[in-house]
Design a protein that fits this description.
This is Outer membrane protein beta-barrel domain-containing protein. The chain has 258 residues and is α+β, with helices and mostly antiparallel strands. The chain has helices at residues 2-13, 16-45, 55-62, and strands at residues 67-88, 91-112, 115-126, 131-143, 151-171, 178-181, 186-191, 195-218, 227-238, 246-257. A hairpin with a 2-residue loop joins strand 2 (91-112) and strand 3 (115-126).
Length: 258
């Protein structure tokens, strides 16, 4: 009986089904290992997302940029010298202070660290006498970079002003009879009782060389360091004997670095 059992066990172990089952299990195991290895390799090849630099790091990078452009406005008071004009019969007005305002567009090119060559163009109007002017500035602008979000600075340079004034004088009352000569635009009229009406106007166009210096503060925005509001104060002196050769101004605007 034992030989019969041994023969049956041997035939079971050596049957084709038993022989094909073992390689199938091995193939399934190797396929599983291959899929896991492929998934790990794919995960390893994914690049991590690049984090955005901190605002302080971005500001440090922008400090190395070469060009800065600013757009702003300037209000000023002028004095020095005296202007006199007539505004009515027997009435003379003398003034020694006046004001004005202008729009500004400027460009700075960095030389080294916080030192810039600074150029600026401005145009506006002034009063007493009323007139318009344009000016250009060229000089040096130095920014102190000891703090991150507040940047003090100072500047000095040459300023050239082209200015025109519109002047007029009026005296007496007009009765409708007049003579006009327009070399200097003078109108004369007869007034009942022997009086006289007089109106005189002229336009002056002059060039005024000047020197300008000032102090400023710039405030880089933490969420956008490329943009910076700024405020400045300045003093300008023109080397001539016209009224208003001394100016004191306040500026404000926005600066862009690129």
């Amino acid at each position: 009986m034992l030989p019969a059992l041994a023969t049956a066990l041997a035939s079971t172990l050596l049957s084709p089904q038993a022989l094909t089952t073992q390689p199938t299990a091995s193939a399934e195991g190797s396929a599983t290992v291959s899929v896991e290895a492929s998934a790990e390799a794919t995960a390893d090849t994914k690049k991590p997302k690049k984090s955005r630099p901190h605002p302080a790091e971005r500001l440090a990078q922008l400090d190395e940029k070469r060009v800065a452009v600013h757009l702003g406005a300037r209000a000023y008071a002028r004095t020095g010298g005296v202007t006199t004009f007539e505004s009515g019969p027997g009435r003379t007005v003398t003034t020694n202070i006046a004001g004005g305002a202008a729009l500004q567009l400027g460009l700075g090119v960095r030389l080294v660290r916080g030192l810039y060559i600074h150029g600026e163009f401005a145009g506006g109007a002034h009063a007493e006498p009323f007139g318009a002017n344009v000016s250009g500035f060229l000089g040096l602008h130095h920014e102190l970079r000891k703090t991150k979000w507040v940047r003090p600075s100072y500047f000095v340079g040459y300023r050239h002003i082209v200015e025109t004034d519109f002047r007029g004088q009026f005296d007496g009352s007009f009765d409708g009879s007049y003579e006009q000569s327009c070399g200097g635009c003078t109108v004369n009229g007869n007034v009942g009782g022997g009086g006289q009406f007089e109106f005189d106007s002229r336009t002056d166009l002059v060039h005024r060389p000047a020197v300008q210096a000032g102090l400023g503060l710039r405030f880089p925005m933490p969420f956008a360091p490329r943009l910076s509001p700024y405020v400045r104060g300045d003093v300008s002196y023109a080397f001539d004997d016209r009224f208003g050769n001394l100016e004191v101004g306040v500026q404000g605007g926005i600066q862009l670095v690129f």
